[in-house]
Amino acid sequence: MMKRLVLIFFLLFASTDVLAVRVKDLVEIQGVRENRLAGYGLVVGLNGTGDKAGSQFTIRSLANMLRNMGITVDPNMLKVKNVAAVMVTANLPPFAKSSQKLDCTVSSVGDASSLAGGTLISAPLHGPDGKVYALAQGPVSVGGFSVGGASGSEVTKNFPTVGTIPGGAVVERSLDLDMGREMILVMNSPDFTTAHRMVESINARLGSGAAKAKDLSTIQVEVPQEYWDRTVEFIAMIESVEVSPDVRARVIVNERTGTVVMGNNVRISTVAIAHGNLSIEITEDPAVSQPGPFSRGVTAVTPQTGIRVEEGGQRLVMLPTGTSIGDLVSALNAIGVAPRDLVIILQCIKRTGALHADLEVI
User: Which of 146, 171, 196 is the last residue of a domain?
Assistant: First the structure.
């Protein structure tokens, strides 16, 4: 059965200037971000589901840990079936303070079959600079299980070799931000027009020259002297500034589901299409609207779009006009054009140069 095309046409505003978005939703502040922490540790107390006898790194790690506790043992005499070597990861939030607790993830690095019932022994978590920022320890919570018999058959649900420790990591080193005399804003979606508008909006709030666009993705904001010791207040004020972002015209087509997503600024130049026994004519005539006398109105030109779709071998007639891609897809949807045909038609329009937008097929 032929799939019906699903058209999602975001025509929320007639003009992009009407759409106002907070700076907070458009940028990241350089330096204000999460930091990745990672460390190595041992999970003990497993019920025979730990690493096998051939896991030398687990054996040596256990021997070293016992040696640090004042217990000297022969590594060759150690059995590690109740112990598993793991990697511990956590995210250190910005402005983290000492004694703050973090959630951490524990993942087996050996051949342990399950971490269920185990306890992580104190594992230091390092940052990218090699410094220890947190210590992780506690019982591991696993959302799965693995059971097997002597015959070798085994039943596994979810991933028993990965677990979590809610609040299991304690921050040992505070992470402060020294902004200095300037703040750098990094845009999530780099764009020259949006960067220019953001600079204008921030300068309107702080004063001319306070903000400058270094490139299409970076905005440099000088911190006024009265805010040198009021960092939080200054950041909150900048984040509340509203900007009208600009985006490139783009059409995204999912051939498998027949979904077409586009913005309201996608346009097609004059074009006529004949696909198989399908003929499409797109016309658009400008209509001039004159205001009444003494009404203080302005003359406006509004397009009147006409689309005709015919099936058969009739002769194609083209008028020198254009239309929006939303009207084109609506017409194709009305006669039940398959998603594959839609993709081919849009690709051909793009190759002719009539589609003034980026076309992405996923």
Answer: 171
Domain tally, the chain: 3
Residue corresponding to tokens 């600024």: 265
Q: What is the dihedral of CA 25, 28, 32, 34, to 10 degrees?
A: 90
Confidence class for position 318, pLDDT limits 50, 70, 90: very low
Does some domain include residue 8? no
Q: What backbone phi and psi angles, to 5 degrees, belong to 180? A: 75, -140
Domain's final residue, options 152, 171, 190:
171
Q: Answer for the pair 331, 295: CB distance below 8 angstroms, yes or no.
A: no
Residue 1 lies in a domain: no
119 and 56 housed in the same domain: yes
For helices 192-206 and 231-239, give the axis angle rounded to 10 degrees.
130
Statement to judge: residues 183 and 203 lie in one domain: yes
DSSP for 158-220, written as a single string: S-TTEEEEEEEEEE-S------TTEEEEEESS--HHHHHHHHHHHHHHH-TTSEEESSSSEEE
Identify whether the C-beta of residue 133 lies closer than 8 Å to the C-beta of residue 171: yes
Which ranges of the chain does DSSP label H, i.e. alpha helix? Answer: 56-68, 192-206, 231-239, 325-334, 339-352
Enclosing domain of residue 69? 35-171
| 149 residue type, one letter | G
Q: Are residues 227 and 266 in the same domain?
A: no
End-to-end CA distance of the chain: 21
pLDDT value of position 74: 87
Residues 46 and 28 in one domain: no
3-state secondary structure of 97: coil
Cα 211 from Cα 188, distance rounded (Å): 18
Q: Which of 335 and 57 is assigned the larger pLDDT?
A: 57
Q: What is the pTM of this model?
A: 0.65
Q: At what angle do helices 325-334 and 339-352 cross, to 10 degrees?
A: 150
70 or 264, which is more confident: 70
Q: Percent of the chain beyond pLDDT 70?
A: 72
Given a contact cutoff of 8 angstroms between Cβ atoms, the answer to whether 351 and 269 are in contact is no
Q: Within this chain, do residues 151 and 104 fall inside the same structural domain, yes or no? A: yes
